[in-house]
Write a structure and sequence with these properties.
- The complex is a heterodimer of chains A (about 230) and B (about 100).
- Chain A has about 230 residues and is mainly α.
- Helices cover about 75% and strands about 0% of the residues of chain A.
- Chain A folds into 2 domains: about 5-160, no CATH class; about 180-228.
- In chain A, helix 2 packs parallel to helix 4 and helix 6 runs parallel beside helix 8 (about 115-125).
- Residues about 1-5 of chain A have low confidence and may be disordered.
- The longest helix of chain B has 21 residues, at about 5-25.
- The chains are: A mainly alpha (about 230), B mainly alpha (about 100).
- At the A-B interface, helix 3, helix 4, helix 5, helix 6 and helix 7 of A face helix 1, helix 2, helix 3, helix 4 and helix 5 of B.
Chain lengths: ~230, ~100
């Protein structure tokens, strides 16, 4: 791989992901506040963000720590909440197959919903891991920065809502979604996933709705593919 | 209970879930997988968008936030630019809250 391209891919990914910091960093701060309230120390709060880097799993763990849950319950929750990572990585596996195992092992650490969303288009077009790595690194830094800010605050309300920062994600993802809506099957996949996701969000606790909607939409899209 | 032990185990579980499909050779399975997962991106985007827009905390939420979000979607549809779309949505939210607190 040409070094120049790799470089620009990394920095493009890093910089084009910066707008999402506005959504990620406050989420990291909110996690830190929740974990602080759950009785975790500053080093433990920071350590979890550095080592785990999975927003919803960390939030769930903080809540479980607060409720005095045992290690097994926390680990089981981590497993369940992060199951969708398998789907994301599996869809990245074919286009990344030709890169070294070391590189894939490194990239795997920064595959989260947002970096996947930013990068999947480029990766499928064959651009390889640099953009994904840049985007993921960018979000990782925002996550750590948000966590640090939350630790520094360690008081006050966890306020994603009041200034509308929680709109950052749906709006960004909408822009990223549009290029995929060319085929009828893709539109069906999106419509089914959107409807299913909303219904599941209202009925099922936690972040199960993402897995339910992603699986349902993907299957609906596959079923709607024209037969050959 | 040792918090650190739990945190390190959480990290291991999370990483294995992320890395396994990329590291474990899947050979023949991959061709079929590629076809079946073709519509995962639009499905996942829609799953991230619709609930976050209509029911951010698990219950339907309308009002100013929804209107600002919908305006953001229109701007996103026209401009296809993430920063412009975010700026439009957040300014609309701030403006609407100021007009109709």
């Amino acid at each position: 791989m040409d070094d120049g391209i790799a470089q620009s891919g990394f920095w493009n990914g890093f910089l084009q992901t910066v707008p999402l910091w506005a959504g990620v960093a406050p989420f990291g701060a909110a996690y830190a506040l929740a974990a602080h309230a759950a009785g975790l120390g500053a080093a433990e709060i920071a350590g979890m963000s550095i080592l785990v880097y999975a927003g919803s799993a960390q939030f769930a763990a903080a809540a479980l720590f607060a409720g005095g849950a045992g290690p097994l319950a926390i680990l089981l929750t981590t497993l369940v909440v992060n199951t969708r990572s398998v789907l994301l990585s599996a869809s990245l596996a074919p286009p990344l197959r030709r890169y070294s195992r070391m590189l894939r092992a490194g990239v795997a650490f920064v595959i989260v919903d947002e970096s996947y969303a930013m990068s999947i288009g480029r990766v499928l077009r064959g651009s390889g891991p640099p953009y994904l790595l840049g985007s993921g690194t960018s979000l990782y830094l925002a996550w750590l920065g948000g966590t640090a800010a939350g630790i520094a605050l360690s008081l006050g309300a966890s306020g994603l809502g009041p200034i509308g920062l929680d709109l950052v994600f749906p709006l960004s993802f909408f822009v990223l979604l549009m290029p995929y809506l060319g085929s009828p099957a893709a539109r069906i996949a999106a419509a089914v996933a959107g409807g299913l996701g909303l219904a599941a969000r209202l009925i099922v606790p936690g972040s199960w709705y993402l897995l339910i909607a992603a699986v349902g939409g993907t299957l609906a899209g596959a079923a709607a593919e024209p037969r050959r | 209970m040792n918090h650190w032990l739990v945190i390190v185990a959480m990290a291991a579980i999370t990483y294995v879930l992320r890395a396994a499909p990329l590291i474990v050779p899947m050979g023949r399975i991959e061709a079929g997988l590629e076809r079946r997962l073709r519509h995962l991106p639009p499905a996942l985007f829609a799953a991230l968008i619709v609930p976050a827009l209509l029911a951010p905390a698990g219950a339907l939420l309308g009002g100013v936030r929804l209107w600002a979000g919908l305006l953001g979607l229109v701007v996103g549809w026209r401009t296809r630019s993430i920063p412009v779309t975010i700026a439009a949505g957040l300014s609309a939210y701030a403006l609407l809250r100021w007009l109709a607190p």
